[in-house]
Description:
This protein is mostly helical. The chain has helices at residues 4-33, 37-47, 54-61, 65-77, 99-121, 125-149, and strands spanning 81-86, 89-97.
Amino acid sequence: xxxxxxxxxxxxxxxxxxxxxxxxxxxxxxxxxxxxxxxxxxxxxxxxxxxxxxxxxxxxxxxxxxxxxxxxxxxxxxxxxxxxxxxxxxxxxxxxxxxxxxxxxxxxxxxxxxxxxxxxxxxxxxxxxxxxxxxxxxxxxxxxxxxxxxxxxxxxxxxxx
Length: 161
């Protein structure tokens, strides 16, 4: 049985490989759908119910509102999403995923979702609690690191060649 330190090292080494594999998968899905990875991420946020607010979507994607508007225009032309009036405030818009392409998206993600689901079904309550805590903490850590990297008070680094 490996010692805790060995397991922690193995986990630390496996995590970047897992992240890289998921980035490759998302890139392949985006290519299959004929969209950019940012457009796919937006589609996932809207489809999952995370948010339908254009301002919040732009923030979550790390985009300016102008860049997000241009991306949304492309996504509308591709019949992936539509802008709809906010029922609570007609001055505001909401982004809605169009159902025609959502079936294709769901189909592309199904094998991975099934594999993850089968693996998670074998975890006990303690393991699931630890996993959820780790993933939640990891999301927070990544958000903090992203904020540091994108700090507007810091000049961009020069590329040395």
